[in-house]
Amino acid sequence: MSGWALLRLHAILVYLFMFLPVGIVVVLSFNASQFGSFPMTGLSLRWFEALWHNEAIMRAFRTSFLLGTLTALISTTLGVLASLAMVRYRFPGKQAISTLLIAPILVPEVVLAVALLLFLRALGLPKTFPLLILGHVIFTMPFVILVVQARLASMTSHVEEAALSLGASPVQTFFAVTLPLLGPAIFAGALFAFTISFDDITGTLFWKPGGVETVPTQIFAMLRNSISPEINALGTVMIVLTVGLPLLGMAVARRVDSGRHH
Amino acid sequence: MTDSAVELSNIVKRFDSFTAVQRFSMSLESGSFVTLLGPSGCGKTTTLRMVAGLLDPSEGDIRIRGRRVNEVPIHQRNLGLVFQNYALFPHRNVFDNVAFGLKYRKVSKADIRQRVNNALELVQLPDLGRRMPSELSGGQQQRVALARAIVIEPDVLLLDEPLSALDANLREDMRIELKRIQTQLGITTLFVTHDQSEALAMSDKIVVMRDGVVEQIGAPREVYDKPVSEFVAGFLGAANIVDARVHELDGDNVLLQVDDLGMIPVPRARCPACAPGTAVRLVLRSEHLIVQRADEEHSHDGLYLSARIATVDYQGQAIRYFLHCGKHTLQALNMLDGPAFNEGDSVSLKVRHRDAVVLETPR
Question: Is the model's pLDDT at A123 over the cut of 70?
Fold first, then answer.
């Protein structure tokens, strides 16, 4: 066997190792029997149905959606403003602030989680849902900033200057020119923020107030008791959401972009 | 001055410790076409951006139609701005691009339609209103950008290297087109370029800049025929510049001694302050050196030097020779009329000395 064939085989094995378990979870979620064993006894959607009727899981879903949506909204808004400052303006300490804004994705999440928890403790603040959102904003914002900054940097400021010269105020220019041109990047950043928030478990475990469960923490809690086929179904739904949403987002963005060209 | 549309007085622009523009003063007469010409980094674009209000001058005043605008933000200055990269709004069609500025002025819908259509007609793109910018060629995009800038009837039109992104043939067409529109509208225009032929062809007045300093301001023929410095002489057209010494004053002529070339008489008017013994620099434009066969008859209006062709640079309608003449290498740009000379040919070089320029303060 040549070196290339070996390399190829190796790559295939690595991918199998990573994705086979995920594939098995998805396949087993359609299994009719209670026990996850092969060969499967029949196809069924009963576990998805059970999910639908499981009040705890549905509540966790609603919580995760709310959390993800608000996180995406806040970190996209802040992230876009921060990116504009970073790319379009010169100010003292810019380099330090830029590093600081990206830092949360460089620091291990556990460290970040403990730090914020201790900080809240020191301030004597109780854990609340808004603070949980705040935590999620901290580590999703860097992704928004990275995406939007890249787009802004590739966009010459001449279009904005042209708009200004034509009589549009800076605010009007932002809404008439900058924002539409940043649209796809903002959309992508928001989707990133949503999906990262949606399937986050480390930070959430530390920061969530008592009685609040998100989908990942709910799965985690369920696993502690028993391995139910419902978890397979829940896993499948999560995979569809966290993989499907960004794919959909990219497709939409490409659509919008190509519409602009033809 | 009542008819000056734009007036710059003692403008200085510093970026940290770097001075980009130094004590710049000039005025643009209403309706005139003024070009800032110079190599990159000479401060021409910085100057234009200060007039636009995209940069604040560190010192000095900018007046547009007599009003001091230093503190007036760009969107209240009523300017037309055209960039090298067109800078059209990619998400809006041609009509909406051109209409953009009118939407921020109190113009009725019907008037907007009328004025946009007029502007598109003026730039000869009457039927493209519904196209997207990405569907247009570079030249068309630049026409749209121009229409967008002039439709608001700006007090001054600022053009930042608008032709530089176009390919050679198109660039010449656009240059003529741009000048036609400018003349037709009588719009005061400040044009920035590093291309001397654009500057010479289009301008009423050229400002030659170098390292943030104005080298010379004058009409195209003035800066071309009477450059005040070696830099201007070298930047506009191809010039041969050689060291010379004033030998003697001889009636209406000054006799200049040039090593290896001998005595070259130059009209006295070209060198009013010349005194015997002064060191000067002599500028001989490459088109004023005419290459002839060595045995060709000499006429009385020139000086003849023997030379040898070193390099031949064929350019189609013209030909550029590099010649060895003593220790000097001179270039001569001649219209091609008959057979060309070849490398190594011994020739006679006719110097039209009445066209020579003398720089009295050599660097």
Answer: yes
ipTM of the complex: 0.83
Residue of B nearest to A180 (CA): B91
| Alpha helices for chain B (secondary structure H) | 44-52, 94-103, 109-122, 138-150, 168-185, 196-202, 220-225, 230-235
Confidence check: pLDDT of A36 > 70? no
Residues of B in contact with A176 (CB under 8 A): 89, 100
Q: Where are the domains of chain A?
A: 1-44, 55-259
For the question of whether the overall pTM of this predicted structure is more than 0.90, the answer is no
Q: Which helix (H) or strand (E) holds A245?
A: helix A229-261
Give the 3-state secondary structure of residue A14: helix
Q: Does B165 touch chain A (CB under 8 A)?
A: no
Which residues make Cβ contacts (< 8 Å) with residue A188, sequence separation at least 6? A147, A246, A249, A250, A253
* A55-259: CATH number: 1.10.3720.10
More confident residue, B87 or A258: B87
Chain A residues 175-194 with CB within 8 Å of chain B: 176-177, 180-181
- The CATH number fitting domain B238-359, selected from 2.40.50.140, 3.30.310.50, 3.10.20.310, 3.30.70.890: 2.40.50.140
The distance in angstroms from the start CA to the end CA of chain A is 49
| pLDDT given at position A262 | 44
CATH class of B4-233: alpha beta
Strands (E), chain B: 4-15, 18-29, 33-37, 59-64, 67-68, 79-82, 156-160, 189-193, 205-210, 213-218, 239-250, 253-258, 262-267, 279-285, 289-293, 303-314, 318-325, 328-335, 346-351, 357-359
Using 50, 70 and 90 to split pLDDT, how confident is the model at A257? low
